[in-house]
Amino acid sequence: MAEYELAQPLLASNILERAKARATSTPAPLTYHALTSHLFHGPNSQVAVIDTTGSFSPTRLRDVLVYRLEAQRQRQSYQQSGSVYEKFGPSAETLAEEAMAFLDRVKVMRVFDFAGVVDAVGEVSEVADRASSRVEEVVESSARERRQEIGDSDDELNDADEEMTTKAHLIDRVQSRTQDSNRVGMMIIDTMTNVTSSLMSCSQTAGQALLTSFMRTLACTTTHHHICTILTNGVVGLGPGSGNYKRRPEDNVSIFASTIGKPALGKTFAYLIDTSLFLSLVPPTSNDATIAFGDESKGKSWKRATVLEVVKDRYGTREGRWAAFEIMDEVKLVPCRD
Q: Which helix H or strand E contains 213, and what residues bound it?
C-alpha cells in the first residue's frame, strides 16, 4: 500500500492482525484504505469482507474510494498548455460513478458467530479452489496442444527445461486472461474478538484449541491461494482519561510507556499470525497530554492522534517501527508533523 509504509508488504505476510483499542473506530479507515489499495491493484482484484459486528459501511468505503480516486487523478491530470501547466480534475459525479463500480468487486458476508466465520472462510476457499482448477485445466489443454504441434521435433520434446518454462508462461498468461470474477485476493475479518469471546468464556482451553485449529486452516488457505488476510482484534486495558487509569507495564505490548493494553485474544494468538499492528490513541501535544493524564481530565476534551506500531513481524525486520497520523473527516489519513 502506498499510504502507510509499515503495512506495505502485506502480500508477503499472509495473515495480519490489527489490534484496536476499545471505544474507537480507528481501524475502520485503515481497513478501508487497505481494501481500496487492493481494488486499485488491478481490474479483477476482489475483496471478501467477513463482518461479525454489522459495522461495515459501503458508504464509508465509497467515500474513501472517491478520496483516493481524486488524489490519484490529480497526480495524473496536470496537462501542458504551452509553457503553463493547468490542472484538469475529474468531476465529483464521475468520481462517484467510478467508486460505485469498485464496490461491485467487494463481497460482504455478515456472520454472527464463530461457526459463521468458519463457513465464510470455507466459501472463499471453495471459490478459489474452483478457479484454480479451471486455470490448471486450460494450462494442461494448451500444453497438450503444443506437444501435438511439435511432435516431430525430438529435440524440443526432450528439452525438459524448455517445457517447464513454457508451462510457467502458460500459467501466468492463462491466469491473467481467465481470472475468475468471484475469486478474491484479499480477505478481511472484522472482528475476531466478539465471535471468540463466548468460546473463551465457556472453556479457555477448548476455545484456544478451536481458535488455533481455525487459524491454521486460515493460514493454509491464504498461503495456497495467495490471499492477503487482515484480522481485527480488540484490546484489553484502560486508556488515558479513565478514572481508574493504572500503569501495568508487564501487560503492555506498546513501546510507549503511556500506552497500556494488549490484544484481547491472548498470547497464544500472537504466534498464529505473521504481522501484528497495534493501534492506539495518544495526545499529540504536551497540553493535550496534561489533560489526558492529569487529575482534572474529567469533563475536558483533548486532541487525539493515532499511533500505529508493528509489535510483531514474523518474516521481516519491521518490529518496533511506528507511525503517527490523524484521521480527518473519517476518511483522510494525515501524518503528524513535528
A: helix 204-224
* pLDDT value, residue 2: 29
Asked if residues 308 and 278 have their Cβ atoms less than 8 Å apart, the reply is yes
Answer for the pair 52, 195: CB distance below 8 angstroms, yes or no: yes
Give the cell for residue 119: 463457513
Name the percent of the chain in helix, strand, coil, to the closest 5.
Answer: 45, 20, 35
C-beta of residue 20 within 8 angstroms of C-beta of residue 232: yes
- Which stretches of the chain drop beneath a pLDDT of 70? 1-27, 76-89, 134-182, 238-251, 295-300, 338
Helix (H, G, I), strand (E, B) or coil at 90: coil
Task: Please give the helix or strand (H or E) that residue 198 lies within, else none.
Answer: helix 193-202
Asked if residues 231 and 17 have their Cβ atoms less than 8 Å apart, the reply is yes
Contact 238, 245 (CB under 8 A): yes
On whether the CB atoms of residues 273 and 19 are closer than 8 A, the answer is no
**What is the Cα–Cα distance from 216 to 323, expressed in whole angstroms?**
30
- Rg (alpha carbons) of the chain, rounded to whole number: 24
CA distances 331 to 27, 36, 91, 229, 298, Å, are: 11, 12, 19, 22, 29
What is the largest distance, in Å, between two alpha-carbon atoms of the chain? 89
Contact 215, 272 (CB under 8 A): yes
Q: Report how far residue 313's alpha carbon sits from residue 7's, in angstroms, rounded to the nearest whole number.
A: 11
Grid coordinates of 240: 488515558
C-alpha 52 chain-centroid distance? 16
- In degrees rounded to 5, what are phi and psi of residue 70? -65, -45
The reported pTM is 0.77
**For residue 298, which phi and psi values (nearest 5 degrees)?**
-65, 130
Name which of 15, 6, 12 is nearest 220 in CA terms: 15
102: enclosing H helix or E strand: helix 92-103
Do 305 and 325 contact (CB within 8 A), yes or no?
yes
